[in-house]
Prior knowledge:
The structure holds 2 protein chains of 2 kinds. By secondary structure, chain A is an alpha/beta fold.
Amino acid sequence: MEKEIRKVARALLRDGKVDLVIGYGRGTLPLRSTPCFITDEDGVDELIWDPSCGVNLARYLPDIKGRVGIVAKGCDARSIVVLINEGQVERENVQVIGVPCRGVIDRRKVEREFGSLDNLEITYAEDAIKIKGKDPERKLPLKGYLSEACVSCRSQNPPIHDVLVGERITEDSGVDEYSRVREIESMPAEERWRFFEEELGSCIRCYACREACPLCYCKECFVDETMPQWFGKTTDLSDTIIFHLVRALHLTGRCVDCGACTRACPMEIDLRSLTKKTEKIVKERFGQEYGLSLGEPPVMGVFKQDDPQEFVVKGGKEGSQ
Amino acid sequence: MMKVIEKERLASLIDGWIEERKVYAPAERRDLIVFEEIESGGEAHLEFNNTRVPPKSVYYPQREVLFTTTGKEGDVELKTPASLEETVIFGVRPCDAHAVTLLDAFFGSGEHKDTSYLSRREKITLVGLACNDPAGTCFCTSVGGDPHERQGLDAIFVDLGDRYLIEAMTERGQRLLDGSDLMRDAVERDLREAKELRKRAEAQIDKLELDGLDERLDGLFEDPLWEEMQRKCMGCGVCTFTCPTCWCFDMADEEVPEGTERIRFWDTCQAALFTKQGSGFNPRPSGKERMRQRVMHKFNYYHKDFGRPACVGCGRCVTSCPVNQDIREVLVKLMGLERGEADE
């Protein structure tokens, strides 16, 4: 795969189809990769591909002028579709190097089990992480250490691509993607409040979630506006909750569940459950899953006569979720 | 006189402190180890490399009220909030304690002292936990620290396996130990073991060659390397908000039922808004200027003002950066550069 990606990147740069390739390079820490910006052919050997390639590189696209090649997993390509549909990126400026993906690692799951990964040699097999240190090599099944969004992923193959590297994967639909959301939905109100309080109360307002998200591309975020200042900027619970809830609402019908926000969060907050809940509502009520095809308008961007609207007509009694 | 306490007695010692003071210690919350106020000594969780975030918010809260105003125009009353009660922060790693001394120097020196910070700070006793097993991301020895460093601490605990060696460095620290019969006097063997652990811990940390970095940075202000290095930076505030030495803040007036509060809260130089002026002009318009500011402030400006870098090598920015921007790599790159034209 890695060789193939380098080959494609080299050709794109050599043939002048792009001025820049964004991919993944080797990180400085175990189980980490790092975004890598290549502008000439000689640089392509820095590119890697393995289950540590978790950052959604599409987040860099709206700021890039010129033609760019980008390594994109299934979910990353979905977010590129959204960026194109929303007029943030021009299709002809992007060469999507699509990579069918078996999921990326949640390094914290591995660290939690192993403790420190310092001085260990880590390699990857198709569906396993191999860890070797003083003790005999251990082979961890990748499935058990995937980022939560990847566990129930149904977008392993990129919906758009200019080049596809590797074989398409038969998408596994065996896992209920909404199990966590249902769990939270079924909590008694006090318990659900505690969930919000504990999770969102841990927020340190670093905005890593927002910055890691390819679809949070606003030039000025509502929470950064100062004239007037709509929302508090502190870590008071009311401030953090309003930030996260409004952010989730802004992503409603747009989020492609790549999980980048959750992986970026230094406090490991369960942000994904919020956006997943909005995704579930959109799917149930409007029958839409976004980011799968070009030209499709976002659900909150259109009005149809037959949109469900009993929450308006019947005063919220039957419509409220 | 150094003391020794058996591990199973530690909780009782802390319980004694809790009777008279607030005690913060590393504790497990939502599967993370963070500094929390604890209600019993048993809650202290001491098996960790370093906490996810430093204990900074105890002595420098992420949000604090500077004063409250009540009343109407012409008859305004101004109230400053009560300071902290006597507080112990237990289990502080030497790097984090080193960081407190940097903040003390900043907030406590010069003509205008920060009374809000200092009034809290004087209530705090810092009790350290020496580092016997530094993480791969630790680099305290490259920035003037070491894993058993005493600087900034009132007392330090050294884990000797089944017991802790305790040394009080200040009167404040000594007061915590006075009158307790849970400890015995340390003997030669305890000291020898601690010394051995210190040596081993030091050897475990890779030392970066950063001599002269502060001066070197003088000539690198306009270097193209900043642009190249910041490219992957997303512009979030993880590095600064998990940093024990960053202190930048913003202020706002907020309406509350009794009047108005002037609040102060952490801000980050990595945000575009940080330097945006009322006119709309932004002197640090892109990631390049913002990354340069972070590095320059820590390794050049602060160094010029206080004679040491404003980084203690705790490695949190390395561990938590979503895109694996590694400050160690950045510093090594900067060290490897030729001096720019600016100072020739």
